[in-house]
Write a structure and sequence with these properties.
CATH architecture of one domain: 3-Layer(aba) Sandwich
Strand content: 15-25%
Bound molecules: coenzyme A, adenosine monophosphate
Shape: globular
Strand order of the largest sheet: 5-4-17-16-18-19-20
Largest sheet: 7 strands, mixed
Helix content: 25-40%
Number of helices: 18
CATH class of one domain: Alpha Beta
Oligomer: single chain
Distance between the termini: 46 Å
Structural class: alpha/beta
Length: 631
């Protein structure tokens, strides 16, 4: 039996023993009463009775154990032309001071706080300061519009909002404060305070009641100590797209999360404390939470906060510069970033300017890694290119090539093997387990390992109905795929109305809800089509209300604007077709999946429940006129 098999079997046969051993790497104020509380399935709770603090484990203990002078964070910002290094000691000072300031403003354990910040070290300081106090943070990605922020404010009910005065997105300067004000105006819940980190290039006017300047409130703040929290207490809420306009608030606990993320650094990424580890993502996404902030710091690595893009800041050699200049050992990003670089510099000319001798492995996730991009990256970098599959819900990978346990030969198109802790199965729609190479629903047998979602914030029912009901005893991932004869898992894509644009998860249902509010629209369908750069892009089909005559071009422009202002520019919504009707089943369900298959040129079976096959033929013609399927 290989090391992987032995490790995997132990994690499944005796998860309590497996994770209790892993938990030794975390410092506890009080050890747990039970490793895994199985008393109320499907609500499994890890390390019940244990007490610890995530910030203590990510910051203080490294200073206490001699890592104080090591760099904790490298802030590399080509857009502001800044490189700044922050040691663990300095980080402790900044985090404890800001936590003290938060405390002085009334933040206490159990409160919620929304953080809306770009890629600057203060975003990490804010998150860690919350963790220090047992305050639950909810970071919202900067590309979301005010309306999306308002939805999250109403659901998370934050006592405060912490933001920056603005951001630089590529070449654009964005002012955040007006957006925050607009969100608060739209929301029913009103946060008591808004703390603004003033950036040099853009100053916010602090004129609203409760407005505070970050720089001012830290001036005479007393440093705050870590507040012990229960392992099962929430660390954060992270909203992610579901199938409707109401996002899902994934709730992450403290203890299990720290244990799992710490374990993943050696076993999946094969790094050592002190190594430089770079996840080129954003703190607003789960990759940012887990692998820019918590995992590298829990493990004592140096993490990079990169405020830039793979291209255009200033060129397609940006990633190679960062890797070379900061001696990065492992880098993690989304395949889209590599497709963007490949498009600008297909022969990798810019790479030749840099010394990448410290660089060992490229990890990719967030969307399907197409074999072309895999081969291009592998040849260019001459290091292992490791695809791994995970979700906001899980916080760390479900399927990966576990580089620190055993390295498997790569099969392009597959993220490789189930990670220890995840008992991955393929089921048909009736819940029967399928054999090798048979495609079906990818599920994980319960219990899920530590670190995965404990529930959905203030919505246990949705947690059960979204993930635990379709296949009792299993977590439904909503991805489809198969396992081959060698045990390699192939993830083929979402089987719900979630799409993946440039590694960003978005809901077509949410886009439909916006489009449906247009005065001329009777009904609509939005689904994902292929995009050679961003993987997927949304396409909207709309049926006009009877008797409406309008300028179609104007309507299309208005719909684009509506999605930009109500969801955000990252939805990349650009294309609409006006059609006379939408194909449906006899019970009235719109056949989005069938239309999507037609648009991407995939074979499909005529649904037996179709109401009117002629309608589907008409749509096929409409799509053809728009150039679908694309060549
Ligand atoms: N704040 C505000 N707006 C943002 C934003 C942010 N943090 N991030 C993106 N946007 C905006 C962009 O400016 C763009 O607006 P525009 O339509 O006015 O031009 C829109 O959202 C779409 O952004 P994006 O999808 O990033 O496209 P792009 O054309 O600007 O850049 C890439 C293309 C490939 C460079 C970019 O998508 C990229 O870096 N992808 C990698 C994604 C990644 O790392 N994902 C990590 C998840 S693990
Ligand atoms: P998110 O919650 O934003 O991380 O998005 C999760 C979704 O992204 C998954 O359900 C998959 O559909 C997709 N995804 C993430 N990583 C991969 C991968 N390595 N291969 C295929 N799809 C992926």
């Amino acid at each position: 039996m290989g090391v992987y098999e032995e490790t995997f079997n132990k994690s499944i046969d005796n998860p309590e023993e497996f994770w209790a051993e892993a938990a030794e790497s975390i410092d506890w104020y009080k050890k747990w009463d039970s490793v895994l509380d199985r008393s109320n399935p499907p609500f499994y709770r890890w390390f019940r009775g244990g007490e610890m603090n995530t910030c203590y484990n990510a910051v203080d203990r490294h200073v206490e154990k001699g890592r104080g002078d090591q760099t904790a964070i490298i802030y590399d910002s080509p857009v502001t032309d800044t490189i700044r290094k922050i040691s663990y000691r300095e980080l402790l000072d900044q985090v404890s001071t800001f936590a003290g300031a938060l405390q002085a403003q009334g933040a206490v354990k159990g409160d919620t706080v929304i953080i809306y910040m770009p890629m600057i070290p203060e975003a990490l300081v804010a998150m860690l300061a919350c963790a220090r106090l047992g305050v639950i943070h909810s970071v919202v990605f900067g590309g979301f519009a005010a309306n999306e922020l308002a939805i999250r404010i109403d659901h998370a009910r934050p006592k405060m909002i912490i933001c920056a005065s603005g951001a630089i997105e590529g070449k654009k300067q964005l002012a955040y404060k007006p957006l925050i004000e607009s969100a608060i105006e739209q929301s029913d819940h009103k946060p008591e305070k808004t703390i603004v980190f003033q950036r040099e290039f853009i100053q916010s006017e602090l004129t609203q009641e409760g407005d505070l300047s970050w720089q001012e409130i830290i001036k005479d703040a007393e440093p705050a100590d870590c507040v012990p929290v229960a392992a099962t207490d929430p660390l954060y809420i992270l909203y992610t797209s579901g199938t409707t306009g109401m996002p899902k608030g994934v709730m992450r606990d403290n203890g299990g999360h720290a244990v799992a993320l710490h374990w993943s650094m050696k076993n999946i990424y094969n790094v050592e404390p002190g190594d430089v580890y770079w996840a080129a993502s954003d703190v607003g996404w789960v990759v940012g939470h887990s692998y820019i902030v918590y995992a590298p710091l829990l493990y004592g690595c140096t993490t990079i906060v990169y405020e830039g893009k793979p291209i255009g800041t200033p060129d397609a050699g940006a990633f190679w510069r960062v890797i070379s200049e900061h001696k990065v050992k492992v880098m993690f990003t989304a395949p889209t970033a590599f497709r963007a670089i490949k498009k600008e510099d297909p022969d990798g000319v810019l790479l030749k300017k840099y010394d990448l001798s410290n660089y060992k492995t490229l990890f990719l996730a967030g969307e399907r890694l197409d074999p072309d991009t895999y081969h291009w990256a592998r040849k260019l970098l001459n290091v292992p290119v490791i695809d791994h599959w995970w979700q906001t819900e899980t916080a760390w990978s479900i399927v990966a090539n576990p580089m620190g346990i055993e390295q498997f030969p790569v099969k392009p198109g597959s993220p490789t093997m189930p990670v220890p802790g995840y008992d991955v199965k393929i089921l048909d729609d009736e819940g029967n387990e399928l054999g090798p190479n048979q495609e079906g629903n990818i599920v994980v047998k319960l219990p899920l390992p530590p670190g995965t979602l404990a529930t959905l914030w203030r919505n246990d029912e949705r947690f059960v109905s979204s993930y635990m009901s379709a296949f009792p005893g299993y977590y439904e991932t909503s991805d489809g795929g198969y396992i081959d004869e060698d045990g390699y898992v192939f993830v083929m894509g979402r089987i719900d109305d979630v799409i993946n644009i440039a590694g960003h998860r978005l809901s077509t249902g949410a886009m439909e809800e916006v489009i449906a509010t247009h005065q001329h629209v009777a009904e609509c369908a939005v689904f994902g089509t292929s995009d050679s750069l961003k993987g997927q892009k949304p396409l909207g089909l709309v049926v006009l209300k009877a008797g409406v005559e309008c300028d179609e071009e104007e309507l299309k422009t208005e719909l684009v604007q509506m999605i930009r202002s109500q969801i955000g520019p990252i939805a990349c919504y650009r294309e609409t077709a006006v059609v006379s009707r939408l194909p449906k089943t006899r019970s009235g369900k719109i056949l989005r999946g069938t239309m999507r298959s037609i648009a991407v040129g995939q074979e499909y079976r005529m649904p037996s429940t179709i109401d009117d096959p002629v309608c589907l033929e008409e749509i096929t013609d409409d799509l053809k006129k728009m150039g679908y399927p694309e060549k």
